[in-house]
Write a structure and sequence with these properties.
Length: 367
């Protein structure tokens, strides 16, 4: 009886200690909960071919599944997305609406979410099993951080590896931690939604995302968040970004009229973001100038690709006035030639040339 009473007392004491750890105080020392609740929002539109892999990668996370909330926001899909998602009934929340755009889908997901950490997974992307755990650990270890992001590899439609460590290859000048706004606006950081996570309090402050933004939603969200919060980079590949003919990255090599539409939409995003950031108390003229440069560049390309050469030429003075480096100056010379003389078919070669310069492949080939 004495042994049983002793054992009961020990178990009771252990239980009380666990409760104390969970609620955050042991002998006056604050202990961060290492398994916060995490909401994963999957916006989707006609990605039935991929969304099963995305959901499966969440269910395979090395993290307590009871602490992961999955919300699928179906933005008017007309393919088999509903049928694929229904296979996971009971494990996720599925919301369907008429097509309103990705900004509306993300806003709806945020409004439905309850997690302490909110993160997005594009329906065509995948996470590695350690992703959620690593993100939670980063937030726990960096209490002043509102944003956590990580590296990723790039795969093709069938899941075959295209680029290892995409960020290191294409964005070698990216900043690792602290204020990221300048690097985001200058294009030193790829703002893929599947690599970014946010504290709930931060998203509550900056959402809803303006729903008139049709493209560049992830760029807008990351930039606004970076204006108000510190960021932390996890130098590990924790996700797979899928490159295929349906996402924005490859549409820049599509037909001229489609590329013109994309650039027009992006110019509106840059204008919207510039307005939001210029109204902030600590607006920085440097990154506002960078945003204006991106705006003029997209307007020029949209006009040129639409055959409106005169409108494109009118953007050139503003573009050159916003130039800050010799590299940008020479890039503007190339844009000027394109706007003045070259047929639209040369656009795809101009894009590829920029790709080779950015990755250093052209320099290595010449040498």
């Amino acid at each position: 009886m004495e042994k049983r009473a002793c054992r009961t007392a020990i178990l009771s004491s252990t239980h009380l200690m666990q409760e104390a750890l969970f609620h955050g105080k042991v002998k006056g020392i604050f202990v961060m909960i290492d398994t916060p609740s995490i909401s994963v929002i999957i916006p989707t539109h006609n990605y039935g071919a991929f969304i099963g892999d995305a959901i499966g990668s969440i269910l395979a996370q090395d993290y307590p599944q009871e602490n992961i909330e999955i919300i699928v926001v179906d933005d008017g899909s007309t393919d088999n997305t509903r049928e694929v998602v229904q296979k996971y009934t009971g494990r996720l929340t599925y919301f369907y609406s008429k097509y309103k755009g990705v900004a509306a889908a993300r806003n709806k997901g945020v409004s439905l979410s309850k997690g302490q950490i909110v993160t997005f997974l594009d329906a065509d992307d995948i996470w590695v099993p350690a992703r959620t755990k690593k993100v939670a650990e980063a937030f726990a270890q960096q209490p002043d951080t509102g944003i956590v992001f990580h590296d990723f590899d790039v795969i093709d439609r069938g899941g075959r590896l295209l680029y290892k460590d995409f960020s290191a290859m294409f964005y070698p000048r990216r900043k690792q931690k602290g204020p990221l706004l300048t690097d985001i606006i200058k294009g030193n950081i790829f703002c893929g939604a599947s690599s970014f996570s946010f504290r709930r309090e931060l998203l509550k402050e900056i959402c809803p995302i303006p729903e008139d933004i049709k493209r560049g939603v992830d760029f807008y969200l990351a930039a606004v968040a970076a204006k108000y919060a510190q960021a932390w980079h996890i130098p590990e590949t924790l996700g797979l970004y899928r490159l295929h003919d349906g996402n924005l990255t490859t549409r820049f090599n599509a037909n001229p009229s489609k590329s013109a539409e994309i650039h027009w939409d992006l110019s509106n995003t840059y204008k919207r973001l510039s307005s939001v950031l210029s109204n902030a108390a600590s607006a920085n003229r440097g990154y506002l100038k960078s945003l204006r440069r991106r705006y003029y560049r997209s307007r020029l390309l949209s006009a040129a690709l639409s055959g409106e050469r005169l409108t494109a030429i009118k953007q050139l003075p503003s573009l050159f006035r916003s130039t800050e480096s010799s590299c940008e100056f020479y890039a503007n010379i190339g844009l000027s030639l394109f706007a003045l003389f070259l047929p639209n078919i040369f656009y795809q070669y101009w894009i590829k040339c920029g790709f080779y310069i950015k990755t250093g492949l052209l320099r290595r080939w010449i040498l």
